[in-house]
Structures are given as structure tokens and as C-alpha cells.
């Protein structure tokens, strides 16, 4: 019994020594490879590289020739060593061992794997999630009338101007003849007196005649710029950016629904942000240009406050 135990221990010790020898050989080869990677820097001393120039400046011509000769000798020695029977056997054994066991032995991966598999304790208390009202950039669709089409745009503008203190006008680069039929696209100028002017690009398609808002650009109330230009004031640039994001996220928003949003900017320069309770934000020094529909009413926020609020809700 003792003889069998001693024989088994001797066999295990021999296998361990062989494995350590293989690992040492592979480690040596890796070090040699890293060393040989430095050779190309001086194998061509006449090349116009920074490393070659620095070597040529400090090493005489005869010394450079010796370095080149030595570099090629090192490469040849390494090639002979790799092609030797012992190294080939070690590489073959390593490849076979890898094929049998392809598990990732890195400790970090193993810890992450165990962490994912660990089930939560049933006795652990669940984190408290405070109620967060659902926010939206627009009110529900049922707050507006039936979908608007291009042939009803003029009548809609006339009715809107009668019912609201704001003004809508169809903008054209050249005067439009009375009774002229509108095309599939139009530009509308929306004005809140002494607050802002917003140019809206609206359009429809043959498959869907519903009029949707395709673009919006904000300007100061006294800026005389065309719709395709940019405001000279940061506050209206930020407002244009916010409206562009809203339209990108909701590309099929109708004109009447979008007008409900624009009407909420009547108090742009006097309303406080609901998050930081400031009119002028710390970042950008602009008023809260974002509007979100919250609990049946409009909520004003700075874009930075809106993002931080969304991040806080997502983290809970």
C-alpha cells in the first residue's frame, strides 16, 4: 500500500516538474519574441525613422554593421529554437491542452461569472422605488382635434389666430398669390410677442396626407433671419436643439399637437425650472427651454436638469 502511494506521488511530482519545464520554456519564448521586436529599429539604419536616426547619431558605421549582423543572428537563433523538436513538442502539447479545456482562467472573468450566477437571498429586502409620474414631451393625442391636412391648413391658421394670443402665418420667400394652392410642404412662422419666433416646416406624403411637423428653428422676436438660418442668441439655439431632438424622437407628431407644446413657451424667460428652481441655469446660463408633460400640466426644466432627473429615475 505504501509502495503504491509513493509511486503515485512520484508520478505526480514528475508530471508537475514536466509542466513547470514547459511553462518556463514558453515564457522564455515569449520574452525572446518581445526582444526581437526591437530589432527592426536598427536592422535598417538608413531608414528615415526617428529610431534609426537616433541610432545613427550615436553609433559609428562599424558599430551599426555589427548591430545589424547581431540582429539577424538573433533572429536565426530564435527560428532554430522554435523549429527544434523539444519546442515543437511543447507547443503541440499546449495546443492539445487548450483544445481540451477552453475555459477562461482569468480571475476577473471567473468572479463576474460567479457574481451573475449568485441568486438573491429571499430574505433580502427589496430596494425602495419611489413613485415617479410618467413624463412625455407631448400631451395625449386626444387633446387635439382630428388630424390636419394640407388643404385645411389655411382654415386652421385662421381659427388658431382667433382663439389664441399667439400668431401663425404661412411664410414664403416671395409673395404668395391669393388663393394659390399649397404644395406638400410649407413653412409656418409662429410668434409669441416679445418672447420668440419659431419657423416650422410641415409636410405630408401621398400615402399619408396628415400634416406633420418636420423641423423647427427658434429665433429672437426681433431677429430678421430666414428660416434656414441660425439664431444669434444661445437661448434660442438651445431651444432649437431641444425641439429638433423632440421631432427626431417623435417624427410623426401632428401640427396641432406640436402647437400645444409651443404655446407652453409663453413664460420662457420667467418660469423656474422644477428641478433646480432657478430661472437661469448654472450650465449655459439659459432659461429652462425643455418642456415635458407631467401629471396633466407642462413642466419646465433646463436640458441638464432634465437629463440628470432621467438618470436618477433610471438608477432607482
TrEMBL record:
It comes from the Eukaryota. It comes from Phlebiopsis gigantea (strain 11061_1 CR5-6) (White-rot fungus). Pfam families: Med27 (PF11571). Residues 94-107 have a biased composition (Basic and acidic residues). Belongs to the Mediator complex subunit 27 family. It is found in: Nucleus. This is Mediator complex subunit 27. Keywords: Nucleus, Transcription, Transcription regulation. GO terms for biological process: regulation of transcription by RNA polymerase II. Residues 94-145 are annotated as: Disordered. One of its GO terms (molecular function) is transcription coactivator activity. GO terms for cellular component: mediator complex. InterPro entries: Mediator_Med27.
